[in-house]
């Protein structure tokens, strides 16, 4: 006699939730893919450039969510990787390196090494001490970039060319750059989502809840967190590369703690540790900020209370709201 298989209701519910999140994320990416067609009827290049900016920040926010949402590591210096990525790109172009792949290789190397060294030091602390040391490293990068007088110093540097991919100017402003950013965004979203569901992600989440228990089970939580820190730094560096191509300008202000704070807001607003939270948060913040600024000069008086209300009453952020609406259907 065969024993009847009984499914755990919580497991089934979690599986349905993951499926809904996957469908919502794919729908968002599909909507972004047709955005160049939609902007031909309204907004034109202005709206398209705004969406590209939001997608670049979404890549950085997704990478930060790997630390905050899954690892419980609130980094207040994540924008430093954006700044490093953009400056490596700008300096390489200024010195005559035009190939996109060599420049990306340099971005990955510089950001990866910086993340490895600073992460190895920062992760020996926790809580508010971790926040403060990442803030210190971020400001260190900012002041270093302002000291580069040969590359504009405080004023930044205008880029007179863009990288080439196999001889083609794919990263010039237009549909080529738009779809390049979209491809990187989609790959980042897929990669981080898959990583979060893997054993690596489960260990990282368990370490967020109880690092001592994870250690007693035989996992080196420091090593897992350091790997996550390096991955997040590299992904943010790639976002910096795309930012430099999009703006055709690099500035030390990219690495300020205010930009790190904006990334944290995007992650919290969208929903920490959710598949689509950082993506939703970045799109929402950039588009709402721009929309309100067109209505009134004092748009921050509206935007601030709006953020507070969403955080207080939208449990799980924007991703949580969408999940609950999908669960009712």
UniProtKB/TrEMBL annotation:
Q: Which domain of life is it from?
A: Bacteria
State the GO CC annotations. Answer: plasma membrane
What molecular function terms (GO) are annotated for this protein?
A: branched-chain amino acid transmembrane transporter activity
Question: Which CDD domains does the record match to this protein?
Answer: TM_PBP1_LivM_like
Q: In the UniProt record, does the keyword Disulfide bond occur?
A: no
Its annotated compartments are: Cell membrane
- Predominant cellular place of this UniProt entry's protein: membrane
Pfam families assigned:
BPD_transp_2
Which keywords are on file for this protein? Cell membrane, Membrane, Transmembrane, Transmembrane helix
**Topology class, membrane:** Multi-pass membrane protein
The record lists the membrane-crossing segments as 21-38, 50-68, 75-94, 100-121, 128-145, 165-192, 226-244, 264-289, 301-322
The name of this protein is: Leucine/isoleucine/valine transporter permease subunit
Organism source for this protein? Roseibium album
